[in-house]
């Protein structure tokens, strides 16, 4: 008789566990999707960073070339 009384309790616990498992499964799916989106965003940001670094390096080289040209021009223009 005690097992008959426990059956609804066990069924209720199984139902609660099943709901928790479903919630966990949805959470895992959501986190996996969010993780993938973040990884793609990270890749995009890294590419942008690399591009900006290249542009910065090119700009620095151009500025250094301009400065070198100005230094070469300064002595000859001050003599005239």
What's the total helix number? Answer: 1
Cα separation of the termini: 117 Å
Low-pLDDT stretches are: none
Q: Helical percent range?
A: over 70%
> Strand content of the residues, in percent?
under 5%
Radius of gyration: 34 Å
Please characterize this protein's 3D structure:
With 80 residues, this protein is an all-alpha fold. It is built from 1 helix and no strands. The protein has one helix at 2-79. It is rod-shaped.
Which key phrases capture this entry?
80 residues
Provide a quick synopsis of the model.
With 80 residues, the chain is mainly α. Helices cover 98% and strands 0% of the residues. The protein contains 1 helix and no strands.
Q: Topology, pairings included?
A:
Elements: H1 2-79
């Amino acid at each position: 008789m005690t097992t008959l009384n426990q059956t609804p309790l066990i069924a209720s616990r199984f139902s609660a566990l099943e709901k928790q498992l479903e919630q966990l499964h949805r959470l895992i799916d959501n986190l996996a999707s969010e993780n993938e989106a973040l990884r793609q965003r990270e890749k995009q940001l890294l590419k942008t960073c690399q591009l900006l670094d290249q542009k910065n390096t090119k700009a620095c080289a151009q500025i250094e070339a301009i400065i070198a040209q100005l230094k070469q021009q300064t002595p000859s223009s001050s003599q005239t």
